[in-house]
Amino acid sequence: MVVCHCNMVNDRTIYKLANTAGRALTVSDVTNHCGAGGGCGGCVDTIVEVLQARPNDGARQH
Ligand code: FES
């Protein structure tokens, strides 16, 4: 699913970032890493949802 249409970032990219970060990410962290949320800002709520939905199991694997 494309989360950020301005920068063509999908949810898998954000999940991957979150799973490799080793800490909870903010929207600003995501923007700094992949640009999502740095354009029109219309996807910020969706980025928050993706960060909150991230399965904890993914974090433990890294
Ligand atoms: S859709 Fe993500 S910044 Fe515009």
What does it look like?
Residues 57-62 have low confidence and may be disordered. The protein is mainly α. It has one domain (2-60): Arc Repressor Mutant, subunit A, CATH 1.10.10. It is built from 4 helices and 2 strands, in the order E-E-H-H-H-H. FE2/S2 (inorganic) cluster (FES) binds at residues 4-7, 36-43.
Total number of domains: 1
Q: Which CATH class?
A: Mainly Alpha
Which CATH architecture would you pick? Answer: Orthogonal Bundle
User: Level of helix content?
Assistant: 40-55%
CATH topology: the name is Arc Repressor Mutant, subunit A
Overall strand count:
2
- Beta-strand portion reads 5-15%
Q: Structural class of the helix and strand makeup?
A: mainly alpha
Reported for the largest beta sheet, the result is: 2 strands, antiparallel
Which cofactors or ions or other ligands sit in this model?
FE2/S2 (inorganic) cluster
The CATH homologous superfamily is called BFD-like [2Fe-2S]-binding domain
- How much is the radius of gyration in Å? 11 Å
* Overall residue-averaged pLDDT value: 90
Instruction: Give the CA-based shape.
Output: globular
